[in-house]
Amino acid sequence: MKSKSILCSGAAILSVSALAAAPKCDRPNIIFILCDDMGYGDLACYGQKYILTPNIDRMAEEGMRFTQAYAGSPVSAPSRAAIMTGQHSGHGHVRGNKEYWPGSPSVKYGENDDYSTVGQEPYDPEHIILPEILKQNGYTTGMFGKWAGGYESSCSTPDKRGIDEFYGYICQFQAHLYYPNFLNRYSRSKGDTCTVRITLEDNIGYPMYGDDYRKRPQYSADLIHREALAWLDSQDGEEPFFGFFTYTLPHAELAQPEDSILQFYKGRFFEDKTWGGSEGNRYNPVEHTHAEFAAMITRLDAYVGEIMAKLKEKGLDKNTLVLFSSDNGPHEEGGADPEFFGRDGKLRGIKRQCYEGGIRVPFIAWWPGQVPAGTVNDHQLAFYDILPTFCDLAGDRRFPKKYINKDLEGDCFDGISFAPTLLGNGEGQEKHGYLYWEFHETDQIAVRMGDWKLVVIKGIPHLYDLASDIHEDHDISTEHPDIVKKMTDIIYREHRESELFKVTLPDVTLP
Fold this sequence. Notes:
Elements: E1 5-7, E2 13-15, E3 29-35, H1 54-62, E4 64-66, E5 69-70, H2 76-85, E6 99-100, E7 119-120, H3 130-136, E8 140-146, E9 165-169, E10 182-187, E11 196-199, H4 220-233, E12 241-246, H5 260-265, H6 289-313, E13 320-326, H7 338-341, H8 356-359, E14 363-366, E15 375-377, E16 381-382, H9 386-393, H10 419-422, E17 435-439, E18 444-449, E19 452-457, E20 460-465, H11 481-494
Parallel strand pairs: 3-12, 3-13, 4-15, 5-16, 8-9, 8-12
Antiparallel strand pairs: 1-2, 4-14, 6-7, 9-10, 10-11, 13-14, 17-18, 18-19, 19-20
Helix pairs in contact: 4-6
């Protein structure tokens, strides 16, 4: 692989291979817990009435809860790409859930349970990503859960992208199953030379679909969490560490062990639902859909509690920043019912939509003695701000605060560090002039500029004032043609053409 370059303001070019690690002192450990398809209103601390989340709520009580934090995209792979690359979805290479399966992408799910190759579109190998940067700064890196940054044996797998230890799903489409046939692992400590498959022998004795599916004993979420805890337990505090825990809960399917967590919710809902499954056997049928979904979030909350307890047990809590968020808004697949739970937090839209409900996500920061406890913050941030923030906290001063040079081809970074906000220095916080998203599947583009929100659907712009219309009910584009023009100009400035992920730009003749 070639030495990756970073193009910064003033056209300075830094070779990653030439970077020296920052001093070890005063650098925090970082854990980022990223769950899957959790809506803005799915946690009690964000107003959820039906689901218990005491550990995440405690994080919010002891840390900072953000109310205007945004995912990188309304679906998984490009949202995670924004974290990894520091680029929004008008610049980044990965802008959608492009799948690689045996033979061709048209092969239907379930036709070949062996899956000779699985995964998503790889990250650009010439663009440096977050774990590579932290690795260059002396961090030990571990990732547990979804990778979604390249198919098996591609140019972008965990072993090639700065990860020391990985356990989970290379392919996010495989991650629709909680009782899969296999997971993937890369472990430098175990002597792995590449990312390999780990067959779940106890699962493959039962069919992947049908009534016997739930007899499979190896539940992926528990397996992944145990590996994450073991990795965390192995940290001795001598070197800083970065743990990226990308749990699949509460993503469909609705499936989990019949333990006390699930039993607590069964019978708790006056009216529960059953769901008969989906065509092509993508998801198995399920009873008690409300109970299953609520239990999955409470199960995730229990994982968070165990992570916090492990940090305290090892005396690492005072020097560890923990972030919690979701990769996009709520889904309605597999029997899930976002309307029942009010999962969008009174926001319009769900997963795959660029309305607020599809991209505004819960976001909590916890770092005792550093992040002010019990604070609620309305700073507007997006996932592409995470990379520069972590660089800032890692003491990497060679990277400027804002990585943008649009006159240059190649790598660029769109994020702004929000470390000042995290550390209670809001007055020193640089702010975005606007935030940007695009998503090809539903042919949508969105721009947020202050309280103005422009949603472009198949080339047609719709304007909303979030200050008075948080649900985005009233399109006022005809009343404010000047604002529409200003925001469409932003789209033409930010969008770079992609052969893989095409969207319709707004007609410049429209008001």
